[in-house]
Write a structure and sequence with these properties.
It contains 23 helices and ten strands. The chain is an alpha/beta fold. The chain folds into two domains: about 80-345, CRAL-TRIO lipid binding domain (Phosphatidylinositol Transfer Protein Sec14p, 3-Layer(aba) Sandwich); about 360-495, no CATH class. The N and C termini lie far apart (about 65 Å). This is Transfer protein. InterPro entries: CRAL-TRIO_dom_sf (IPR036865), DUF6824 (IPR049227).
Length: about 500
Amino acid sequence: MVAPDTTPSEVDLVARESNVQRDKTFQDAGLSLERFPQSSGEADLVDKLLADEIEKLSLEEKERNTFDLYGMAQETKDPENIDELLEQMELEIRKINRREAYEKAKYLNEEYVMGKDFRHIFLCCDGFDVKSAAHRIVQHFEVKRELFGDAPPLARNLLMSDLSEDDMNVLNSGAWQILPERDAAGRLVLVICPGYRDNSVAMDSHLRSQAYFVLSFLLTEDVQRKGIVVVVCLFGESLVKLQHTIFLQFDRMKKIRSGGVHKVAGVHFLLSQEYLRPLVFGMQWLLPEHLRTKVRVHFGNFEQLKFKLQTFGIPMDCFPCHPNKPINLENHLQWIQSQRKQEERGNSNTADTIVPGRFDVLFGRGNTRNHTGNVRAAHIADMFRDKYESVGKFEKTAIAERIVTIIQESQGRFLKWEDDVWVEVDQQAARNKISHFYRNTRNKGGPSQSKQSTSDGSAIDDGSATNSEGELLASAVSKRTQSHSTQQSTKRIQKRRPRDD
């Protein structure tokens, strides 16, 4: 575990002190700092050191880690004195001696570097600790300068056009992917599959491709508030040959992490082969101390691994990696295409790229039929079926709008795939989606016992596998849908859109 070849600075002094203590513990246990553990005995020793670390945590710290892992932690909220904190952060930045890249970026594009929204993300990432945020934003520009030089990317968000051909080949390989669905807590899930990387490509291309994720896609306020979940899939015998390369990459990735603006809520390592245990515990030991205690290591066959991840709220229907199959690139390439379209339209802020969430209702064919938001929408619609079939046209529209409102109030959206991106439809299209569901199932003789297809091609499950959620939802919905609510909605629809549908 060789220390990174960076000049000492105030940016990572605390991290360095932590690393010194960590490496001393490693050496005292008789383990080498120059390689990953090599045997089961060494892996067991590292496992014990990691367990001792967790045991030393306070009860409050253990609970916080558990809440983060299971998506139960509260999102970060802005303090009332946010403007004052931004001013204090600027004063802290001026105290940092080595900030050449920061000043260069400020010279190139002061509006970007000094932008309130941009700086607010760094504050949010570090829990509104102005000193930590100041160091992070300075290191952020140091990392960008090292990877991309003094070119325009230094002073703006990264674009796909900033990547070289080799960089794009790495990106297209899918070794790093964002899942098309978020986890149960609405967090992005980053899947890393080092066994699928192209070892013939230079290390810098891998790092620039990864930086496109870490320094660009994750540079959003939503991510800073909720955090992200990382899943590392250690599948394939090629990982044994890549151990040394992975070791060196971890070393350089420390620098990128220190300049990244993302909160990692949890890290999951997956492995189906016992002989890879030394590798996974070595990788875990290389992580920063605050992350090592948020790691969960999962052994087993793929079905067992799927079940374990699902208990943490991670969606598995769209998971791209399998121990015995090639990596699935369908969703990843679709995401790349969507990103490119956004940039071609002049929108370099990837925060505007919609990633379907758990409660979103999706239009279209294919995998949308099993999306949890569609399954949930079917439950709600079925609760209103008897009422819907017994009333007139205007009342039907009011009921459909009420169902749409229930979905929207629980952070669900109605999305369709248009021009290679997900876009949110208007209120009338959302109501029509619900109405289409009723008409389609009526024409087929009522709801089926398994799956029902809407007339626009998207299918909605009856949710037999999620009865517990359906029962809870039914109880909540029944309290919110008294007769006077339907009557009020009817009057509003008649007044505003007398000729809807």
